[in-house]
Amino acid sequence: MMNKFTLRSVMTMSFLMLLSTLTFAQTARLQGRVVDSEGAGVPGATVQILGQQISTSSGANGEYSLGNISAGSHRVVVNMMGYETAEQNVTLTAGDNTLNFTLETTSSSLDEVVVIGYGTARKKQITGSVSSVAPEEFNKGVVISPDQLLAGKVAGLTVNRSGGDPTSGSNIQLRGPSSLTASSSPLYVIDGIVGASIELVAPDDIVSMDVMKDASSTAIYGSRAANGVIFVTTKRGKAGAPVLTYSGWAASESVANRVNVLNATEHSQFLQDHGLSVAASETGHDTDWQKEITRSGFSHNHNLSLTGGSEGTRYNASVNYFNNQGIVKRNGVERIIARAGVDQNAFDDRLKLAFNLSNSINNSDHVDYNIFNGAARYLPTSPIMSDDPSYEQYGGYFQVPGRTNYFNPVAILNQRDESRSNNVLMGNFKADLTIVDGLIWSNVLSYQRTHYDKKYYMHRTDFDSKALGRGYADRTNLKHIDKILESYLNYSLTKDKHTFDAMAGYSYQRTKNDDGIWASSVGFLSDDLGSNNLNLGMLPEGYNPFTDSPILKESVLISFFGRVGYNFDDKYLVSASLRQDGSSKFGINNRWATFPSVSAAWRLSSESFMEDQNLFSDLKLRAGYGVSGNQNIDPYRSIVVFGPQSGQFLYNGTWMSAYGVNQNENPDLKWETTSMFNVGLDFELLRGRFSGTVEYYDKRTRDLLYEYDVPSPPYQHNRLLANGASMNNKGVEVVLNANVYSNADFSYSTTVNFARNVNEVGSLESNIENIGVSQRYEGSIGLEGWTGQTASIVLPGQPIGTFYVAKYIGYDENAGRTIYQKPSGELVTQDQISAPDDYQIMGHALPKFTYGWNNNFRYKSWDLNFFLRGMYGNQIFNATRADLSRLQQANVTNISKDAVAEGIFETPLIASSRFIEDASFLRLDNATLGYRFNTSNNRYFKQARLYVTGQNLFVLTNYSGVDPEVNLGGLDPGIDNRNYYPRTRSFVVGVNLTF
């Protein structure tokens, strides 16, 4: 037995040893070295056998070693931050094998092509302040217009959209407010077309958006660029097989937050506890008015594009359909955008022709914003409809005649119809001719036509006296035409380490706006036709249906511009530009103005003293100064304008309407001028693993346009538009990017931006002797009993959005009175406050700083992105809360739960700091989880990706209102004045397919 066992054991061990030897003979070992383009070893690079869990990292000199690999064919992948991914196929034999890799430095950062005025440049050659945002960085989810793609993404650019109304636009400010009267919107340049409508672009068609922030960059656009310039580049055709792409999503939207008012049970209990009662007709019901006017909205978007062509002829075409159903009933927008383009090369590619045609049709249904205040204030115990015959005149809707600003919100929603249509058509043609090597002559022709049509109708049963019993309709139909011709030369010469470039051009733009008619009518026998047939109204004697018809406005802008630049070895860079604009909008004495700029950059990383360091892969210091302008006012503001007056006179036995001067002449009227000094530091560390920008700017705007009160006589009208006021903005912006980790399976990158802007009003004096103001009250509130009260002041030395109200001290429960403090320090009750003489500066609407934090994760085929943004240090005057704090009037209007908790029974009748709240917030703006399918063996799909997105998932704030993000535009930002549209929360499912 023992011998048999021993023999069996020996045989078994021998078999195992033989098997082990055979197995070892079939395994391979791979070793080698990872180096950069100069032959230096690259430590920390990830070397992986594709498709297998076999990987390692290169050592200090770039050496690596992988063992236990099966013999045969494999694909080896090397990843390293700051370098392009390298891949090689290899056939391994049993035993040792050698495979070396040479990594090329990633060029996506420094060699990125950035769009600048009338040309392009590599990022490392930029001397001004330009921020670029690629599609993968855009905000995800339900996006109404392309400007929302940038919200929170660009330091210093505030894209503010208060509420969730799909028919409303955004308020955009770049580096703070810089005007008192003119528009603060930036200039859009779409595919080289200056001033093109952003409505012509679908988000899915955008390739990049470049934001020029400082005046040294924007001065090349002269009188239109004081608020910055946003370049939008869209998809173009490429040589090769046709590529068909589809992007689509569907979304469900709901109300993110509501006004916190009492429900029927709580309201009845409050009345009972405090000995109050309501009229019999207003009780016995349980109505959630906010719920009655809102719904869960459904939205969807579809974008189909086709690109392709040959080296000589390339084409692109796309169509986008967007339908956004608002969360308020009878509210929404439907939009179709179609685009087509052809690029043709000729004469051995020395002539390049491009033709584009775009059309956007936007149809929208609007609601009266009074429904929101009504839904908050209307008693929850009141009915929506009533069978009482006295309400038949209101269409059966329950109404309370005689109560100020108290309307049934459901009735307003259903008895007022407003639809708008905006049709924008643009065709443009560009020809680039290479005259000699380095000299290109470009010519651009553009034609843009906008057709606007608005229909508005108030039913015959509408509670408003203008419509009750007769109906009211108005119709607006306008056409706007914009024609542009631009011709310019670009010249570039490189010799050894020296590069010279120059550009010179001419521009002519003719604009015609408000070519159309506005008319109204009353006295309809039926509501069936709405505003479609105004002549069916039976007008009372003396009714003028064309009282406020639009004034046709035409203007011409002629410009000469040029730029020169010098670059030595990508080390020292200098650029200067000059533009002269002549505009018919301004006074005959100030039609022409000149806008210069100069900027320089020094790439320290290219200096010899930086050769031996490995920390900075790029380090650039730049500075610039420039002057730009703002001409965003209507034409004819510099000349005398006549119009109908309120009175009539008897002429030949007939009463005639009187005509007189409605606008004074100002031959010295000119554009606003903004000068800006900007200094910035751009850096890249560890071969692009970390990068960022730090900037400081000083922005000074003078000759602000402002409408002053003037004596009459000597002036024929009591108002005059003049220049003279000034405003300053200073700030710091920081952007930090980090490619934290990356290998074949997993990567994580993050970007943080921070911006602080300090705004200050300079002078409010005009450039006309003895005309000016020391301060101006803004922000009219208009609450019941608040006649003529304001909440804001425009005051030299203070920022726009300064709250100027009574100082609230507290509530005396024993006396039942609120207590306030006068500027002298005296404590008084609210009846002893004289507005605005006893008001004080009590807060500011503009934030101390804004920030955004973007995060991107990738694990194999999965990707995750989430973006947070916020503001800090801004305040809101909560007029909505003030209006719902009338506890003593709870028998005639609803009140908020916050007011009940506060327990102040004195009705607020003055604007005070009691209603100024901290509005700082942090919002999870959007989060997206996606999966990319493996389509390598699929004959139909080149790429396929499925994703889900959540928008506005949460907001952290101390603000008690519906949402802390209220309007920040105009002279009275930061006021929540009851006309809010609830912000939405969205959940999106989408797909991206490439065929």
UniProtKB/TrEMBL annotation:
Topology within the bilayer: Multi-pass membrane protein
Protein name in UniProt: SusC/RagA family TonB-linked outer membrane protein
Domain of life from the UniProt record: Bacteria
Signal sequence annotation: 1-25
PROSITE patterns, sorted: TONB_DEPENDENT_REC_3
Keywords: Cell outer membrane, Membrane, Signal, TonB box, Transmembrane, Transmembrane beta strand, Transport
InterPro entries: Beta-barrel_TonB (IPR000531), Beta-barrel_TonB_sf (IPR036942), CarboxyPept-like_regulatory (IPR008969), Plug_dom (IPR012910), Plug_dom_sf (IPR037066), TonB-dep_OMP_SusC/RagA (IPR023996), TonB-dep_OMP_SusC/RagA_CS (IPR023997), TonB-dep_rcpt-like (IPR039426)
Record organism: Sphingobacterium chuzhouense
All residue ranges annotated as the TonB-dependent receptor plug domain in the record: 123-229
SUPFAM superfamilies in UniProt: Carboxypeptidase regulatory domain-like, Porins
Record's subcellular location: Cell outer membrane
Family in the record: Belongs to the TonB-dependent receptor family.
TonB-dependent receptor-like beta-barrel domain sequence ranges: 403-953
